[in-house]
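seq as requested:
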Amino acid sequence: MTKTIAVISLWRDSQTYIHTSLNQLRFQEDELGNDYSFFYSFYENDSVDDTSKILKEWLEDRQGILLTEKLNHPKWESVPSRTRTEAMAQYRNICLYSLRDKKYDYLFIIDSDIYYANDLFKSMIHLIDNNQMYGMITSNTQQNVSDKFDLSKSTSYYDSWALKDLQGNQGLSFAYNPFVMTADRRKWNRSSPVSVASAFGGISLVRGELLQEEKLIWNGDLGCEHWYFCQKIREMNYSIIVHPLLLAEVRHIHVVRPDLFLLIFDKLRLIQNRFKNNTVHNRLKNMVIDCGLYIFNFLFFLKKNISRMIKLFI
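struct tokens:
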């Protein structure tokens, strides 16, 4: 019996890469053959190029919906801004709502500027079909920014803000292995899947049956919109999985310069995890590290807010 794959994706001023993105989706269709049908829910807003026109033409030969709006919203970078996360949650929920009357077995959530292999969908579907407690599987999306923790690695995990481990630790920024806890780091290095509290990575697969629950939506009021979405999946007793072998890629055009305060803060977190044994010597080390974490977290927060104020007055 043919199964249905729903795909949601957000677009804005995407003309420079849109044909590559759409070709990748076409390759997924070819790879999965006649066993799967595809339905697309695309959302585009405020484009000043031909993004909307290209999407409309591409969907003419396919099942899908294009939702397009002129909102005059600013163009956000990938920054932890509440205004941005609220807007991103709204856009994603619009896509999801357009599928409310559609029956589908799998939901793929894809950032439109992600690069991935032709067999990625097939690999992700195989994993979720063979692991009944997997509610959501996310990719290991690497960016073309070198690892600042292991200088032998030329790339680093892309979506560290959406990533939280089961203890609530935020993912390490600009690290090929983005995990803090030793057990998770070992799994990652062994190419084993890691169960987490939250992740996205630019490409994720969710069991279609979970989307029948109306409470499963994005919410950006309290931070990254994916935190809430993943929390709701875990409340249904399903796991969120990051798999190191599900490779995808982000190609930054401009040079990305990591924030020094954030790097020091993350390196202190990683060092702190090595001193978990409750000895007097380790307790003293942890006190020093805690002090350093507080200082550099404050400096990072201060720098971020000063930058935001400067932008408001320019």
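Residues 90 and 146 are 33 Å apart (CA to CA).
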